[in-house]
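Sequence in, structure out. First:
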Amino acid sequence: MTTVDLHTLTGAYALHALSDEEREAFERHAADCAACAQEAAELSATAARLGLAVHEAPRPALKVEVMNRIGSVRQEAPRTDPATRTPRSGARTRRLSRWALAACLAAAAGLGGTAVWQHDRAQDAQEQARRAEQRTDELASVLAAPDARSRTAKLADGAIGTVVVSESRDEAVFIASGMQRPPGGKVYQLWFDDRGTMRSAGLMDPGRTTEAVLMDGPVDGATGMGVTVEPAGGSAEPTSDPVAVVEFPA
């Protein structure tokens, strides 16, 4: 898949219409393409708003009204040749009419369930977009803080890690470039080094090799940070040797 092809996948990515292989390829591309990343985020937010705009909840009494009328409203009987009509055709028509109405009701209920599902998906997407935007704003605030200080270190396999610390905000950002993906079922976990005691600072995205992460929690006097490989979901304390150790700038 060429770079030109990847540029055209922003809409499909926003609508979750890509295969796993295409999604991973696009996410790798978007990590280095700010234009595609921004366009995909904007399209995702737009899709969420459109999903909310077309949703309309039925009146609570609608189901009761329909159920009450099933037994009293007859559908117009199909036209038949009187010569071929049998004495039982009227009863059979009434049964078929009720079945048809019941089928329509079931279909309407199914569509209602689909609308609720779409509404829930739209709300989830909107909440995820809101959280992502909030986290991005916080990350940018740390990087732009007047007292922000940074330190860069070479990591394993030629990767580079940079930590940025703002004392006034009591927050830190870790920026990794060129890291190898963790083994299957594993994830990179960040840690604050509280003078020898490691405190969890969140997880990195296992599908990205380049990422900027706002570390979870306050710096609170930590002297540095580390990165370890942990089981998916993270660990309460490090279970492996660190793949990266970076001291905080003075």
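Second:
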Amino acid sequence: MTLGRYDYERRYRRRVWTGVAKFGALAGVVLGVGLFAYQMGIEQLKGRDVTLREEIATLSRQKAEFELLASQMQQAARTAESRTAELEGRIQREVPTGDLARLSQLVAERLKSGLTAERLSFIIGQAQMQRNCQPAENKRFVLATPLLKSGARGTTFANGAVTVSGDGQSAHNTQGDPESWYDPGQPVTIKITAIGGKTVTASGTLPLHQSLVVDSTEYRFTFAPGQRSFVDVAADRCAYP
């Protein structure tokens, strides 16, 4: 009986120690796997840290480059704005406007037509505020229309030196039929002719203004609607220039 109990206890202890050994081996394996995984995790974190640091350095360089580019662009924009303001001021100072623009265009046209700069300079230099003019002549003449073309249609000034004539559109009665007299609300054409054939025209709705220079005299005409069929004319004759 004693021997059987001893064998039982010994087998029991052996099983216990075997279990402990298996548990220890299993624990060692688990611990080893854990340590290996931990080490791998540490290495991965180190690698990720290096990668992140490199990305941060790259982004920092790019940020510095962008900031420098933005600064250069802002400087360029300020320079362009300053240049634009300078050009606008120069344009306002140097490009003629209003009456000066019209005079500049007229001078350009006269130069293009063949008139010399010396002649233009002389004429402009001779112009004065006070002009030497004779009293105005006031006359009237019948304006020709499609239904009124026969006979003399016009008048003369300066003892026949200048002839004025013209034509217009027929007026219409209440039935819409054309009349022989002109319609003052429609455009007309006035022709001014000097002895020798020099001619200028004025076209548009009355009143109209036109000038004609003959030798050393300037004739300035104002045309306005008169009584039926008539155009009233006021003519100034002044020394030129």
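Remark: The helical segments are 2-94, 98-112, 117-126.
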